Amino acid sequence: MIKKILLTPFQKFVKIESLAGILLFGATIIALIWANSSYGSSYESLWQYKIGISFQDFELKKPLILWINDGLMAIFFFLIGLELKRELLIGEIDTIKKATFPFIAALGGVLIPVGLYLLLNQNPHSVKGWGIPMATDIAFALAILSTLGKRVPLSLKIFLTAFAIIDDIAAVLVIAIFYSININWLFILYGIILIAILGFLYYKHKYSLGIGLILAIIIWFLFLKSGIHPTIAGVLLAFTIPIKRRLNVKSFSESLTSISNNIIKEADDDEKHLLTKDEIKCIENLDDLTFEVRSPLQHLEHKLHSWIAYFILPIFAFANAGVVINTSYAFNFSLMTTITISLFVGKFVGVALFSFLGITFKLTELPTGIEFKQILGIAAIAGVGFTMSIFIDNLAFAGDLTSINSAKVGIIIGSIISGILGYSILRLTGKKESTTYKTNKTE
Question: What's the CA gap between 123 and 186, in Å, rounded?
């Protein structure tokens, strides 16, 4: 019963992510058109405009694009952390058995693209871009699945989501370990101490969004100045958010009935009637009850999901996807090709091969209602690595605009090819009646 209440309804999650994918696509197209138009200089100037605060000896001013990539994306990573915690505790990967198939698929989807990138890359300067092809963009991927309608069983969407979440775990670890420079360990220590204090407060005392927000800003700043990318602070902070409710549903229902009865006793049909002290007290008790019965983690995840899907990710795409594409521009075509092949071929081969080996050696089994030919479609769609790939690209080649833009073009091309191939495979292999397969958790 508790699991059913705490879990975000999967159908709603898919709907939000699918629309987010469409918005991401639209933002990308607009950014590319603007950057390659006669007004292209204004596009670049906009994102390089510095904003921030300064007083006495303190100053924090950054270009707008860095506020997006370091600030807004920290909120995105906070949501990833909330989803990871929920999935690990009560979700689709809360047991070894459930996690085995998506874990093996994700392992192949990380190792093979990275290995292929290192194999194809011949430039020592470009080797640091190895992390770019390792992550799948779940918003784009689910948007592609949504266009197929009833041809895609719900269990296939659950598999894609679980494997993409494991993908995200790997990407977060890679960013934290390999894409952090000039680390100030003292600042990191301060940040970790504050995270531990916040976790202890939430565990021993009442959850407080206000206190959490103040400490989160301080922790984000410490990570920003430490050399570890500040988005990692978002993930760590998410794990302090309690998932348990202080009040069970039965007690909530009983208290709700009591409060409702008290309000009815005081009720007045006069529209101009002002609330009595007793009525105000009942409503305040109702607010307290609502707070107590909600899982803080579930509530935050629910509130943030739409903001991130409909605002933060499209803004990120709009700010980062505007690459100038013309023959006179200095592109690193070798890097571009390596990224494209690593995303398209690496993801497809990695996910498909490791899934096949897992089934062959009986390490796992296909989820209910899924055929292996549909896994091939998901393996292809896994090559759509837009958001996280561009994010890692900016970290890997910081300051090198040629490499950043070359990698972005490679990401876009690889993602488009992967999306088209995956869509084609699933359209040819899907059957409308496949929607009859449902898991107990989503019913």
Answer: 35
**Residue 55: exposed, middle, or buried by beta-carbon count in 10 A (0-12, 13-18, 19+)?**
exposed
Alpha-carbon torsion 243, 392, 186, 217, what sign? negative
| pLDDT tens, residue by residue, 190-213 | 999 999 999 999 888 778 888 899
Residue type, 370: I
Residue of 374, 345, 346, 344 whose CA lies nearest to 109: 346
| DSSP classification of residue 269 | -
Where do runs of H (alpha helix) occur along 36-135? 40-48, 64-66, 73-90, 96-120
- Closest by Cα among 111, 167, 41 to 346: 111
Nearest Cα to Cα of residue 325 among 406, 237, 233: 406
SS3 363: coil
pLDDT, tens digit, 9 for 90 and up, residues 145-170: 878 877 888 778 878 887 887 888 88
pTM of the model: 0.77
Contact between 120 and 341 under an 8 Å Cβ cutoff? The reply is yes
The structure tokens listed for 97 are 């058995």
CA distance 255 to 289: 8
| Residue that has been written with the tokens 């109702």 in this structure | 286
Which residues share a beta bridge with 52?
61
| Integer Cα distance of 352 and 24 in angstroms | 26
Beta bridge partners of 53: 60
